[in-house]
Amino acid sequence: MTRAVWRYVSHTIRQAPEGGATYEAFCVAAGCGAESGAHDEQEGPQDWALRHAGRTGHGLFRRVCTDHARVTRET
Q: Where in the numbering of this chain does the DUF7848 domain appear (predicted)?
């Protein structure tokens, strides 16, 4: 009979600043589907949403911020 030995090692996950972040906004008004596109700074999608709301009267947007994470083994 074979026996296995399991060794559990703790890890930590944190934001990796060197990976940067991407910001986007999406109009969720019925049938619209407009989006800001990806930007490196959140002001781009925010400005786009304000202009889009002013032109169309749409007032609800989904905002997405995507970043990178690094997992490190704790010693």
A: 1-74
Residue 32 DSSP symbol: T
* Residue labelled with tokens 């990178």: 68
Two tokens, residue 29: 């008004």
Residue 61 burial (10 A CB sphere; 0-12, 13-18, 19+) = buried
CA pair distance 33, 30, nearest whole angstrom = 8
pLDDT digits (tens, 9 = 90+) for 11-69: 999 999 999 999 999 999 999 999 999 999 999 999 999 999 999 999 999 999 999 99
Supply φ then ψ for residue 62, to 5 degrees: -105, 125
Cβ–Cβ under 8 Å, residues 15 and 69: yes
d(CA 51, CA 54): 5
